Amino acid sequence: MKTKILTLALISLILVQCHSTQQVQADLKNRIIELFPGATVEAIAFEEPYTEAYQVIIPQYLDHNNPELETFGQYIYLYHVDYEAPIHLETGGYDAYLAEREISKNLGLNLILVEYRFYGDSRPEEIPWEYLTNDQAIEDYHRLNQTFRKVYKAGKWLTSGISKGGETAMIYKSKYPKDADVVVPYVAPIILDTADMRPWEHVNRVGPPECRQKIKNLQKRLLQNKEEVLGQMMKKTNEDSLTFEMGHEVALEYAILEYPFSFWQWDGDCRQIPNEDVSLDSAFNYLNGVSGVSNFSDQSYEGGLPSYYQHMRELGYYVMDTVGLSSWLSQGRYSHRILAPKGVDLTYNGQYMSAVKDYAENQSEQMIWIYGGLDPWGACAVNPKGKSTMKFVKPDGTHRTRIKDLDSLQQQQIYDSLKVWLGLY
Question: pLDDT at position 7, please?
Answer without folding.
Answer: 52
